[in-house]
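hey so i finally got around to running the thing on that chain from the lab meeting. sorry it took forever, my laptop kept dying and i had to restart like 3 times. anyway pasting the input first so we r on the same page abt which one it is
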Amino acid sequence: MGMRKSWRIIKASGQNIRTYLQGQITQDIQKLNETCGIYACLLTPQGKPVSELYIFQISTDVIYMLAPASVAENVVSRLRQFSLGYTLRIGIIESLNLYSVQGVQSHVVLQSIFSYPDVPEPCHLAYIQRPNSESIAITISDSPPGYWVIAAADDIAYIEASYLWDEAAFEAMRIYKGTPRFSIDWDSTIHPMNANLVEFNGVSFDKGCYVGQEVTSRMHWRGGVKKKFYRVSIEHEPISVPQNISNDINIGKLTSACSTPDGCFGIAHLPVEFEHSDAQLTLASGGTISIIEPCHA
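ok and heres what got predicted. didnt touch it at all, straight out
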């Protein structure tokens, strides 16, 4: 268990908050309910990503959004910019933190430390709300069990620091599972469609208009997706990341890597034509990589 300082909780509230967000995010807000969250991206009018978002409904007029800490203020600014005509409150909630709970005994931690009477369903982004509070527990993985918990710092104030894992341990788990992160593996130079937006169920092509829709739809319907993120195995731990990947010429990048008892794994951004290819892929610092699968939820 540990605190995830690289994430911020944004609270958006108001009578028409769902209607407003429907015109701002890539996923259909109708898929969001009080037991299952959604993944989406926030785009500029030109279709460039502002951030990835994990979105959860706390009550009829209150929504939480998880955004990378490095871009959270920009997310708030962007959402406020287009809210003319709506009565909304949007801001970072400094009193709430994000915690990760991982492992076969994670359900015990949810119940004994965070006082949850039950655990969420074992499906991605399923969540439950703790009675009489705004704290929620979210399923991130089912094998091994893993949860995110949005809660106040007071909830674990009595836990000794030696029992808490640091951010690096959770980052290694993220990389091993193959989950690219905005501001680490990709940024505003990569369109979300080239960052596995479909594979992470982060976009709807039927919902109607939203900011940046034109570019996103065009890439989908006209075959504009040229690269994706892949979970890869690595011959040996690279000296540094990011690092170029070549097949005679540079074709992509290794953006994250971790070493585990089962070997070295990473996340690589590669042309889609190499997914089923036998071509040898080589790192700039030496050693080869092998594609395991496209990154997905």
